[in-house]
Design brief:
The chain has helices spanning 17-31, 46-58, 84-89, 100-105, 110-122, 135-139, 143-154, 160-165, 184-202, 204-209, 220-227, 244-254; strands at 6-10, 39-43, 64-67, 94-97, 126-131, 167-170, 211-215, 234-237. With 255 residues, the protein is α/β, with parallel strands linked by helices. The protein has a single domain, classed as Aldolase class I (TIM Barrel), CATH 3.20.20. Strands 1-2-3-4-5-6-7-8 form an 8-stranded parallel barrel, surrounded by 6 helices. Helix 1 (17-31) crosses helix 2 and helix 7 (143-154) crosses helix 9 (184-202). It binds 2-phosphoglycolic acid (PGA). 2-phosphoglycolic acid binds at residues 10, 171, 176-177, 215-218, 236-240.
């Protein structure tokens, strides 16, 4: 079964509501002929979800919408938090969960990642679960066991059906925003190991169905190399997703 490649733009803490709407309108004509071959998703900050969602709906864009984080409760006394229901209401399809910046700066743990994965599936959306090692872990030769552990913790208790719908982004922390990348072969080794972990927990059909993205300094210049690897199904793009032309060229490369 062929997997539908995905290119998702993680805008991080960039773009106001108005700027996000404009960026979305600028991306659309550049990718309008490739969306059948590549699923294109934008993940604005919470405050721009409404405006981007409105552009997608009114202009009938073939673009998916994702949030960058979520809380696991539906509602309640959780000041500052955003619930899955609120994201569904804004027509989000995806939620990035467990990004290394959330883990590093906002106290995200394997346990909270798992709660969020369940909450996102429970609300009918799909999590884009981020995993990846530090430079120290890589240099110690511990990358694959570390990442397998993150994956197992994230998907604990998920149903077999949901497991096949998962998107997992392998993002080596030392490659994020640094301009450094692993070789495509070594990124593929980790992607294959992630897929094998899903297979070990949920069985072969889920392993074949799960989409594994590479993330970390993906640019138009290096995207093709990663997309040529058999276990890499696309990219989670940070910096380069803030420029319509770069994001479109990366999406084109995924075709
Ligand atoms: P980058 O970020 O493309 O700017 O390295 C990727 C990410 O953090 O998702």
């Amino acid at each position: 079964m062929a997997r539908w490649p995905m290119v998702a733009g993680n805008w991080k803490m960039h773009k106001t509501a108005g700027e996000g709407a404009i960026l979305t309108q600028n991306i659309d004509p550049l990718v309008s002929t490739i969306w059948e071959d590549v699923e294109i998703v934008v993940c604005p900050p919470f405050t721009a979800l409404k405006s981007v969602s409105t552009v997608i709906e009114l202009d009938k864009l073939k673009m998916g919408l994702g949030a960058q984080d979520v809380y696991w409760e539906d509602e309640g006394p959780f000041t500052g938090a955003i619930s899955p229901r609120m994201l569904v209401d804004l027509r989000c399809d995806y939620v990035i969960v467990g990004h290394s910046e959330r883990r590093e700066f906002f106290g995200e743990t394997d346990e909270t990642v798992n709660k969020k994965v369940h909450a996102v599936f429970g609300a009918g959306m799909v999590p884009i679960v981020c995993v990846g090692e530090t430079l120290a872990t890589r240099e110690a030769g511990e990358t694959e066991p570390f990442v397998r552990g993150q994956v197992r913790a994230a998907v604990d208790g998920v149903s077999v059906e949901d497991a096949g719908r998962l998107v997992i982004a392998y993002e080596p922390i030392w490659a994020i925003g640094t301009g450094r990348t692993p070789t495509p072969e070594s990124a593929n080794d980790v992607a294959r190991s992630i897929r094998a972990t899903i297979g070990a927990v949920f069985g072969q059909p889920a392993a074949v169905a799960v989409r594994v993205l590479y993330g970390g300094s993906v640019k138009p210049e290096n995207a093709t190399m990663f997309f040529g690897e058999p276990d890499i199904d696309g990219a989670l793009v940070g910096g380069a997703s803030l420029d319509a032309d770069s994001f479109a060229r990366i999406s084109e490369a995924a075709r």
